[in-house]
Amino acid sequence: MEYFSSYFLSFFANISTILAFTYIASLAYKFILYKLPVVWMRRLYIVLSIAAGWLSMMYGTQYSQSVIFDLRFVPIIVAPLFLTRASHIITIGAGIGIVRLTFGLNHAAWAGFANALILGFVTALCARVLARYRLHPLVYFGIIILIVNVVNVVDIAFLGVYPAVKYLVEMAPFSAPASLLFSFFFAFILHDFKTDFLRRQELNSTNQKLAEQFRVSQEKAEELQRIRLQLEEKNHELILASRYKSEFLANMSHELRTPLNSMLILSQFLAENPNDTLSEEEIEFAGIIHTSGQDLLNLINDILDLSKIEAGRMSISLGEVSVREVSESMNRMFEAVAVQKNLSFTIDSSGFPDIIHTDEQRLQQILKNLLSNAFKFTVRGGVTLEFLVETDDNGQQHPVVRVRDTGIGIRPDKLEQIFEAFYQADGTTSRKFGGTGLGLSISREFAILLGGDIRLASQEGTGSTFTLLLPSSSLSGGDQELRLLAEEAKVPRPMTFSPVQHEELDTSANPAGADPGAAGADPKPLPSPGTAAHTDAEETDAAAPQPVTRDLLQGVTVLVVDDDPNNVRSLSAVLESRGALIIQAYSGRECLKLLGQRSDIDIILMDIMMPEMNGKSAIRQIRRMDAFKTLPIIALTAKAQATERQECLRAGASDYMSKPIDSDALIQMLRDWTHERT
Q1: DSSP reduced 3-state for 569
Q2: Which of 89, 110, 389, 555 could disulfide-pair with 124, CB 3.0 to 4.6 Å?
Q3: Tens digit of pLDDT for each residue in 26-69?
């Protein structure tokens, strides 16, 4: 009983010391040591385990000068809780054995050294073997504790510190149960500590991962910010580039239209031969000049159309479209071409609805481009224009317009490329047949704006079939759906960012020789008294001027205001040939001066872009004069921007016409505005 009391007191002192030491180590880990890498934590645990063994021996029961009973083996037993490598467990055993030698080098000390080393090997071996089986943690450590305690008893008995029989009979019955009891108790406590340790380790690992993720996210956020700033800078550059391009095109349009104005007016005037002074050949030459100038004007308009499409600023005007009127328009436009080339031209709209819902201007320009191509590349045979209703795979009916020709055809590998701007199926065709390759590109973009598409089937040497497929809502009259399709199609191409904050180019304000339904046409100006405004030219061949009707403007006094002497001379010649009396002014200030001197002026033709005082300023000044508040003023400009018309009307202009001027349209407009005054 005396042995048991001594063992109990010794083990209690040992366990209290180790627990206190463990608690201090736990606090150190909680606030400081958790920052250490895992490798250093394992090394620190080995050192602390050896220190715990040393403390156990310090407070152990010393039966003699050389013999000490303690719980030095407990750190070895619980080592598998925190360490997985056998070498680490053996190191703890060897370290505790070496510490035992510091209490004196004698037989008992060497026996203690050997005992600690053996227990380290046995614990490492048991942990390695039992790790192969999926045992419950309590079963796993229970087996290790039992085996290590049995080995400890046997080891002490045969190391010769005490006679084996005496130890096994007198001491072991008391020390072994106490060792088992406190081993289980301490293992249970450390198991909880390990659970907390693992939880903290997992939390630490999670925090590290979160910190790393936060760092990465911060880097990505900074990178995204840099990219956003770069994109904004690029977007700004694109906007500027688009604005500069639009301004350049508008200025170039003005510079090109101004000389074109004189060329077209005078060439038409000469072709009409009002004084019968030109030979037939000279009249033909004048007609060629007029046709070539009209071709140049159409090219300018095509380029501006492409610019508007690219910027996503092309608009559509939906409404009811008479298929009969469209057919008649196409027939009038191309019947003479078919006769000239000795080709057949057939239009078939039987079985097609009389009315569809779409943009008539865009539709007519698409058909005009497709038919122009068909006649251009067809030498023999003919061209057919068909209006059909087809049913798709979903059972929906679609209006379809098909243009079929018997021309040169297109190679299969070129079918998609011909829709690219400035591209033709063969590099030689541009020289053999002429053209810029813009028509098909513009037509497909217009078709997409209408919610449809253009499809092509062709065989080289046989002919081609272009099919304009319109959405089913064109039959049902679903304007809202058509508008949604148009808005979806109005995406800047090929740019990523839609240009903004600059004026839209107007490619069709000019009525001279304009094709019916030309793209981008402005709404018509305010009608003149007693008739509709005539800003669109009649559907006639520009190369074949109409017969001259003299004296249409007899008795009308026209004040022509333009800073370009050629334009003044051209307009004066045409108007005088119709009986008008012309007064000329070369600036806005000169115009105001003449108005103050004369009261017989019936109408003013006012150029808008003039130096010093521009046309809009001059119109505003005129409208401030009581005597001229109702005087008709026709604004003339070569500036191809859609807002120009509205700005001129807001400034006080009565009507608007863009250059180059169509002589017949201008004369008709002058008659509409002056017939009541005269």
Answers
A1: helix
A2: 89
A3: 666 655 665 667 677 778 778 888 887 887 777 666 655 555 66
**What gap in Å lies between CA 231 and CA 233, rounded to an integer?**
5
Whose tokens are 């598998």? That residue is 80
Confidence of residue 313 (pLDDT cuts 50, 70, 90): low
Measure the N-to-C terminal CA separation of the chain; round to a whole number of Å: 146
For residue 514, being part of any structural domain is answered with: no
Identify whether 602 is part of a domain. Answer: yes
How many whole angstroms from its chain centre is CA 126?
65
The model's pTM: 0.45
Give CA–CA dist 507/257, Å, rounded: 11
300 lies in some domain: no
| Residue 342 one-letter amino acid | N
- Write the pLDDT tens digit of every residue in 240-276: 777 777 667 666 666 777 777 777 888 888 888 877 8
Q: Please indicate, yes or no, whether residues 479 and 561 belong to a single structural domain of this protein.
A: no
Q: Which residue has the tokens 């071709």?
A: 295
Average pLDDT, the chain: 76
Res 50: pLDDT: 86
The verdict on residue 414 lying in a domain is yes
In contact, 484 and 478? CB cutoff 8 Å: no
| Domain count for the chain | 3
Beta 557-561 vs 463-469: how paired, if at all? unpaired
Between CA 97 and CA 80 the distance in angstroms is: 18
Give 9-69 as a DSSP string.
HHHHHHHHHHHHHHHHHHHHHHHTGGGS-HHHHHHHHHHHHHHHHHHHHHTSEESSSS-EE
Other Cβ atoms within 10 Å of 102 Cβ, number:
10
Residue 130's CATH number: 1.10.1760
Paired strand residues for 358: 319
Query: Are residue 482 and residue 566 in the same domain, yes or no?
Result: no
The Cα 607–Cα 669 span in angstroms is: 16
The confidence score (pLDDT) of residue 502 equals 34
HSE at residue 331, side-chain half, CA atoms within 13 A, is 11
Asked whether the predicted pLDDT for residue 633 surpasses 90, the reply is: yes
Dist CA 314 CA 486 (whole Å): 10
C-beta separation of 350 from 434 below 8 A: no
Interacting residues of 296 by C-beta distance below 8 A, sequence separation 6+: 256, 260
- DSSP states of 212-237 as a string? HHHHHHHHHHHHHHHHHHHHHHHHHH
Domain boundary among 112, 134, 162: 162
- The C-alpha atoms of residue 69 and residue 8 are separated, in whole angstroms, by 11
Distance of CA 677 to the CA centre of its chain: 58
What is the pairing mode between strands 68-69 and 463-469? unpaired
